[in-house]
Amino acid sequence: LRTLLPRLRPGVYKADFNPVAFSWYCHLSLNRAVRISLLWPIINSSQVLKFLYFRTMGARVEFGLNTSLDVRFADLPLVRIGKGTTLSEGVQISCHTFVGDRLLLKPVTIGRNVFIGMNCTIGPATEIGDRCWIGMENILGINRLPEDTKLDDFVWQHRSPKPSNLTELR
User: Fold this and answer.
1) Rg (CA), the chain
2) Which of 9, 45, 65, 143 lies most in the core, judged by the most C-beta atoms within 10 Å?
3) Could you give phi then psi for residue 31, rounded to 5 degrees?
4) How far is CA 36 from each of CA 91, 93, 110, rounded to the nearest angstrom?
């Protein structure tokens, strides 16, 4: 079914009835339909099934992604995740947001061997480098974290960290 839908393209679009907004809505609905069906626990119970599902839905993930059952993705065709990444309970990844009457679609890129703690929200235009460690309850959107960055719990909100809490892992 997904192959019949128009491709999602990053950009800023008017949030009215237009081909891009319709395509975005169809991709989002298809992903959510799988989530509310009984298929999701079965898919998520196997590394192979999970990998095949994400690839089928358009995400560019490497084999070896570790996720809990309640990780929520939106806009899978705009998501890139490297091998060995762990997404803890309650993590949300979304490649869209609305700004006024505009729909913003930007990719999310997560490197290899990244750990993302419980209840983190990763928003559009976020790039997380390899080997980063992100503590729980952080909100990232339109951010770029270099490789080996460590964010403590509860420190990154509204696109600005507390400077004393941003450290390098070495």
Assistant:
1) 16
2) 65
3) -65, -45
4) 17, 17, 25
Q: Is the pLDDT score of 166 beyond 60? A: no
In which band, very low, low, confident or very high, does the pLDDT at 36 lie, cut at 50, 70 and 90?
confident
Q: How far is CA 129 from CA 23, 58, 62, 115, 132, in A?
A: 29, 21, 15, 11, 6
- The residue to which tokens 């949030």 are assigned: 15
Average pLDDT of every residue of the chain:
87
Q: Are 81 and 59 in contact (CB under 8 A)?
A: yes
DSSP 95-135: SEEEETTEEEE--EEE-TT-EE-TT-EE-TT-EE-TT-EE-
pLDDT tens digits along 61-109: 999 899 988 899 999 999 999 999 999 999 999 999 998 899 999 999 9
Q: Using the Cα atoms of residue 114, residue 64, residue 141 and residue 126 in order, give the sign of their dihedral.
A: positive
Nearest to 11 by CA among 97, 131, 90: 97
Q: How many CA atoms lie within 13 A of 94 on its CB side?
A: 16
Global pTM? Answer: 0.85
Measure the N-to-C terminal CA separation of the chain; round to a whole number of Å: 45
